[in-house]
């Protein structure tokens, strides 16, 4: 049969064709496995299996999350705030002061007892200051507010208006505008604001009207004890000063006069020092200090959602993932636009190199043609 | 082991030559034999015969592409064994299918060769090589995998990750070109 001759003649083909076909198949071992009866890797089956496992995990997670939430005691969450309120009431009723800073909340000290001890010392030293003084609470309020805005200038203007409306002032202000190489860099502002202590809460409640409040951290420092100590010492020194003046008026001996003059001078210095300290305390207590960071952003952070169920969290994750993906694609496009010249150069270089390869192949083909003609 | 070193073992008439060939290309040769014979027992017999033929061929032969050299020997041995056992229809009919397809390339259809027009296998081989040289890489590979290695269309499409339709179309076009070349020879 002629076709048999053809089939046999296939054994005479060039070895490089045989090798090339074998390399192209690239599956000599897999073919042997096929011959042996082993099945090749089935992507469809594996893909379906992985998808089923993922769906099962999501379902179990949703069920488990709901079960655990149902088991938690709501009474605990109701009792905790009540217990805290009772504790605070106890502390205040007994004259305790609470340092309510973010890191030392619940710390208490015995202002009344310490004040009584100090009064006894003054009584023993012969001072005329009353010894049944109770220290007043003197609170220094501080806060740090992080704000985000889509329109920086508008928000800054609103902030200035708010500070003015509560009778406050800007202690310091620093605005960064970015530069030529900061393409995409947004304005940021850092301010130190002083507002009257009685307007502190009102200010914090209103600061988020024109922009998004990312976070607030507050601290309150009670300097009642230090204030009382300083005040008491000041009164003592003033009494001492008056007595020295009386003694100086009666003194006749030169050495006594010199000694009294020196003591009066020292006392005056101490009075000035304590007076300035009290003034500083008054300033800090009278005006709360608020550090504000105002950042312009492309998108404000999401607020805390009240809905914390599993599917709500899953939905938020999906949504945020999609938004981030879109942002990433936008960033890549922006990067490409920024580096367009470089990219064009690289592409042209690659094309030239590939064209050279093609030219070489074309040359080999033409050479082959001439050889066949010669034959 | 490097192919050159295996050839050197053959030239040195070392028994390690066949062991090394078996280790490196045993599966390959078995695949080629099975594609022709479609029987595990016959394939083993064919491969064993192929080792012997290789031992006898080297030296004086010193193949440049040892793997292709083995492929040719194995294929020829398998075809001879197939003819001896007179079992073209065995093994899924791939040989019969291949023969039917190649019959298209011959004008006048299937029939006994006219002795006056019989061509040596080498001359036919040269014609086929000329044809293969004009084909694109994919078409050539498909042709060789079909008519040298005797893989089925489905196996070829899976190996090269192309559709079976593309394989069939490529083979059809290649056979048409081969027919034109054979007609020029008066075959």
Structure explained in plain terms:
The complex is a heterodimer of chains A (375) and B (187). Chain A has 375 residues and is α+β, with helices and mostly antiparallel strands. Chain A has helices at residues 2-9, 15-25, 28-36, 43-71, 74-93, 111-124, 152-165, 200-206, 224-250, 254-286, 310-338, 340-374; strands at residues 97-99, 107-109, 139-149, 169-176, 188-196, 212-222, 287-296. Chain A is 63% helix and 15% strand. The two termini of chain A are 30 Å apart. Residues 109-114 of chain B have low confidence and may be disordered. Classes of the chains: A alpha+beta (375), B mainly alpha (187). Chains A and B meet through helix 1, helix 2 and helix 3 of A and helix 2, helix 4, helix 5, helix 6 and helix 7 of B.
Task: Explain briefly what this protein structure is.
The complex is a heterodimer of chains A (375) and B (187). Chain A has helices at residues 2-9, 15-25, 28-36, 43-71, 74-93, 111-124, 152-165, 200-206, 224-250, 254-286, 310-338, 340-374; strands spanning 97-99, 107-109, 139-149, 169-176, 188-196, 212-222, 287-296. Chain A has 375 residues and is an alpha+beta fold.
Number of spatially distinct domains of chain B: 2
Structural class of chain A: alpha+beta
- Low-pLDDT residue spans of chain B: 109-114
H/E element string of chain B?
Answer: HHHHHHHHH
In spatial order, strands of the major sheet of chain A run 4-5-7-3-6
The radius of gyration over CA of chain A amounts to 42 Å
Largest sheet of chain A: 5 strands, mixed
Q: Within the CATH hierarchy, at the fold level, what is the topology of the largest domain in chain B?
A: Arc Repressor Mutant, subunit A
Share of helical residues of chain A: 55-70%
How many beta-strand runs of chain A?
7
Distance between the termini of chain A: 30 Å
Number of helices of chain B: 9
Structural class of chain B: mainly alpha
Helix count of chain A equals: 12
Q: Give me the CATH architecture of the largest domain in chain B, please.
A: Orthogonal Bundle
Uncertain residue segments of chain A: 70-120, 125-133
Q: What is the CATH C level class of the largest domain in chain B, in words?
A: Mainly Alpha
Order of helices and strands of chain A: HHHHHEEHEHEEHEHHEHH
How many distinct domains of chain A? Answer: 3
